Amino acid sequence: MASAADVARQEEGRKIRSRWLLSAPALVIVFIAAIGPLLVMLAYSFMTKGDYGDVKPAFSLDGWFSVLFQRDMFDDTLSLADAHLSIVWRSVRLSVITTFATLVLGFPTAYFIATRPRNTREVWVFLVTIPFWTNLLIRTFAMQQVIRNEGILNSLLIWLGIIREPLQIMYTDWAILFGMVYVYLPLMVLPLYASLEKLDFRLIEAGYDLYAGRLAVLRRIILPLVKPGIVAGSILVFIPSLGAYVIPRVLGGGKNLMLGNLIELQFGSGRNWPLGAALSITLMVLVMVAMLFYVRNAARSGGGHG
Amino acid sequence: MPEPAAVQGKRIAIEARGIVKQFGQGPSALRALDNVSVSIRENEFFTLLGPSGCGKTTLLRMIAGFEYPTEGAILLHGEDIAGLPPFKRPINTVFQSYALFPHLSVWENVAFGLQMLGRPSAEIGPRVAEMLKLVHMEELAQRRTDQISGGQAQRVALARALAPAPKVLLLDEPLSALDYKLRKEMQIELKRMQSETGITFVFVTHDQEEALTMSDRIAVMSKGKVLQIGSPWDIYDKPAERFVADFIGETNFLTAEMVGIGGGTARVRLRSGIEIPATIAEGYTPGREATIVVRPEHARAVKTGGQLAGKVENVVYFGTDTHIYIVLDEGGPFMVRQQNSRSQSCGFEVGDRVGIDIAADAAQVLRD
C-alpha cells in the first residue's frame, strides 16, 4: 500500500519531470535559430563550391584547405594564404587592443558612476546607454565624420596649429580601432559598473589603513573584487570585436579587412561558400578557445572569489 | 585632574589639539567636532564615549587619516600628522564592520599590512602565526572570511590590525555586532591583548558599561564636544555635568542651595532644609542655586531619620539588589539601590513613608 507521503512524492517527481516542457519553446528556438544553421554551415564547409556561389553536394576539403593555404594559379604550388592569416591576425590584434582600450577607458568611467550619490547614478548609467538608441551603421558614419580628412578632429587639430596636413586616419587600422572602442565602450562600462556598485568601499579604507597606497589598493583590493565585471565586460567587447563587420567595412575601407568582411566576401563576390563556411566556423572556434582560456585564467587568479 | 597609575608619567602618543570639523558651509554647516582637545598616553586604553552622532567616530577617523580637520592639529609623538594619508600613519583600525577582504583567506588578511610595508616573507610568516595565536585563530588560517562566524571575524580584524605593530590601535565599536556573552569575553580579551602588546588603544563606544570596565581613561562626548575626561572612577563618581552623570549609570539630581565653599568642598542646603557636604566639579561657577547628584547606591532607605523624606512609589527586585523608587515630599523622584541579602526583603512596600540617608561623601555639585 502506498502511503500518502509516497503518493505525494511521486506526484512531485512527475511535476518536476514535466517541467522541462515549459522550456520547450526556448529549446526549439535555440535549435532552429542557432544550432540548425551552424550544422548547415558545418555541412557546407565540407562541400564543393558552385560556379556562381552556392554549393554542390559533393564532399570536398577545399574550403578548409583554403583557410590556410592557397594554390598558385599557374603551377599549382602550395603556399600559406598570407592574406587570410594577416586578416585573422589583424582581427585578433584589433579585438585585443579594443578590449584593453575599453577596459582602460571604461574602468574610471564605471568607478566614477559607482561613487556618485545613489540617486544620480541612474542618470549616469542612462547617459552611457544613449548611443544604443542609434543604429550601429549611423554611429559608424558619425565616427567617419569625426575622423575623415576634412572631419572635426583634423579641422580642430589644424585650427589649433598642432598639425599642418590632415592626418590620414580613415581607411587605416586606427580608424577601425577608434570605431570599435567607441561602439563597444558601453558594453564594458555597464558590467564594470554592476561590479563596482557592489564593492564595499569600506574595504578600500581598510586597505589604506593597512599601508596600501592608491595603486596597491587598486591592484590588490579593487581589481580582484571587480574581476567578475572585468571578465564579463571583456567577453562582451571581445566577441563582437572579433566578428565586427560594419565598422571595418565603413571605416577600414576595402583594404583593411577583418574576419567578418572576409567571410562576407566569400559568400558575396568571392563566390566561395565552402571557404566562407569554413572561415565562419574558424571564427567561432577562435572565440570559444579565447573565451575558455580567458575565463579559466580569470577563475584561477581570482582565488576563491570567482 | 588625577590620572590612573597605569598611565601616569607616560609619554603622550596621540594628541588632538583644538580640533574643529565642519561639514558644509554657511548657516546649514554642521559642526561634527567643536574645539576638541585630548591627549592620549602611550599604552593607554582610552575610550571615546558618547551617544551616536556625538562626533566620536569622526574624531577616530581623523586620527586614522580618513577625515581631515577643518581646524586644529593631530599630533603623533609630538609631530603633526594631519597632512599624512592613512597609509603613511603607523596607526591601524579595527572597523565596526570588520571590513575583512572577502577575496583573501584569514591568513592573507592578517599578512596584508605586513606585505604592504614590504616586509620579507621570512618575517611575515612567523608574525602572522604569532598574531593568529594571540587571537586563537591558528586553526582557521586557511578559511575564507565568509566561512567564519562574527566573533571569529572580529578576532581576525583585530589580528590584522595588530600585525604591523602599530603605535596606536583604533577600535570603532568593534564589539557592537557581537551577542552579549561573546562581547563580555572579547572585552576581557581586548584588555589582555592591550597589556600584552603594549599598544595604545583608542576605543570608541556608546556602551557606558563597556567603557567603564575596559578603559584607563574615558572622554565623554556630546554634540561634538568633550565634556569630561577622566578615569572610569572619576567619570562615574565625580561627573562634571548633568549629561555625563545622566549618560553613565543611573543617578539622582537634586536642586540645592549653596551655603558655602571652601577647600574643594561645599556645604549645600537641601530642599528639606538639611545641610550636607558635597564635592565640587571642576569649572564650577559659584551661584546661589546648585544641582547636585547622588548615585542610587550611595544612599540608603531608612524607616526614620535621613536627610530627605518621601513615599515609596515602586520597588523592583533585580537579584543582586533592589531598586526603590521614591517620590520626595518636596517633589521630584529619587531612587535608592540597596544590596539584597538572602534572609530578608528590603523592608519597604509601595506607599510606605521612607527616609533617605545620603552617605557623607556621596554628593557632587555639577558645574551646570
From TrEMBL, chain A:
Any one biological process term the GO annotation gives: transmembrane transport
InterPro entries: MetI-like, MetI-like_sf
Subcellular location, record wording: Cell membrane
GO cellular component labels: plasma membrane
Annotated protein name in UniProt: Spermidine/putrescine transport system permease protein
Transmembrane stretches, start-end: 20-47, 94-114, 123-142, 174-194, 229-247, 275-295
Name of one Pfam family that matches: BPD_transp_1
Assigned protein family: Belongs to the binding-protein-dependent transport system permease family. CysTW subfamily.
Record-annotated ABC transmembrane type-1 domain positions: 88-294
Main location: membrane
Record keywords: Cell membrane, Membrane, Transmembrane, Transmembrane helix, Transport
PANTHER family, per the entry: INNER MEMBRANE ABC TRANSPORTER PERMEASE PROTEIN YDCU-RELATED, INNER MEMBRANE ABC TRANSPORTER PERMEASE PROTEIN YDCU-RELATED-RELATED
Membrane-topology annotation of the record: Multi-pass membrane protein
